[in-house]
Amino acid sequence: MASLDDLKKRISSVKSTQKITKAMKMVAAAKLRRAQESAEKGRPYSEKMNNIILNLSSGISDKENAPKLLTGTGEEKIHLCIVMTSDRGLCGGFNTNIIKKAKLFFQKILKENKTLKIITVGSKGYDQLKRQYMENIIEKISFKESKNVNYFDADKVGKIIIDRFEKKEFDVCTIFYNQFKNVITQIPQEQQVIPLKSKEEKETDLNNSYEFEPDEDEILSNLLPKNISTQIFKAMLENSASEQGSRMSAMDNATRNAGEMVDKLTIQYNRSRQAAITKELIEIISGAESL
Amino acid sequence: MSEEFKIEIVNPEKSFLLKEDVTQVVVPAFEGEMGILKDHISIISFLKPGIVKVYSKSEENNYFLEDGIVEFKDNSLSILTSSIYNVSDLDRNKIEQILKDTEKESGLDNIDDQKRYLIDQKIEVLKSLQLN
Fold first, then answer.
1. How many domains does chain A have?
2. Interval A126-162: pLDDT, tens
3. A61 Cβ neighbours under 8 A, 6+ residues apart
4. What is the pLDDT of residues A24-53, one digit of tens each?
5. For residues B46 and B29, what is the distance between their CA atoms, to the nearest angstrom?
6. A27 found inside a domain
7. Which helix (H) or strand (E) element contains residue A115?
8. Prediction pTM value
9. Distance from CA of A227 to the nearest CA of B (A)
10. What is the CATH number of the domain that holds B77?
């Protein structure tokens, strides 16, 4: 059995761990509020953008000559996957959930004998994928330096994707991220951005024809690259809110567990102290009796 | 009948402006300025750098934006833009700074005609703002 001294040491070490997790929880809670706010504020932009593009693409007359970003290359051989994770750990299942979802997708693609290329955004994703998919990772991006999620960073990623698309390096592009639902629930998402998947063709009311200036094609070909950056930005915002939420609940659990552990250890400590005292008493009494 | 319609200006970070009672909006569309009144036909257009004027019964507001898309449908006008400023918030230093950045950009060689046109436009608008 552990000596009294050892127990004391363990109790104090668990207590200091508890202090750290508690502090991390508080920090995450403060950051979460901000991240959640900006995620919610960012939603109208990406929704509007999506709407306009849907309206545009449903109105396009010449499907043959439509921009490649919209219709795809006509093949589905090379898949590019953008796996978006956080740069920091200690946030519960946040990164693991995305990776799990992504790996399922990777296996499906590889089984169909298609080529897989991966770009990781955020260093945790790279760390978890490099062992199994090292030869598939073509680029890793990390925004450790920028404190807040900003559009500029998202635009950079978007430009990289479009650049590679124009060099015909891939046919289909999918992004993986966590959608923020609430503090305890984050849903890992896969979203195909190239070619743009028109979600269940909304019944397009025909009286809703637009006038375009300049013409549709030009607007579309300018808008689609922007849309990709926007979608990436949305994913980054959702991710950062999810990360903080996930960290908050993970740290909350950790704090609670540490508390339980301290209680348990304290009981053990008190018992063994009591045992030691009793033992000493018995020794004294039996010593006195033998006289 | 009222002549008011709804306008919403959003940028990636947030919803910048939401108003229900505007009577006229003038936007710097790609092929020239465009005034929009109530019951305008549905339209989607690009914006070039310039001033958006938002008129309502009681006031008139000007905003400077660098790019964007405008959509008008069912008497609701949406402007999507990546950077927008309220003109009354722009002071001399801020204008100076944007102007400097833009001029630096226009010094680059690898830009196509369309982009060159947009940059020239932006410089022009900024200079006219500086005069006021």
1. 2
2. 998 988 888 888 888 888 877 778 888 888 888 899 8
3. A216
4. 999 999 999 989 888 888 888 888 888 888
5. 6
6. no
7. strand A115-121
8. 0.83
9. 11
10. 2.60.15.10
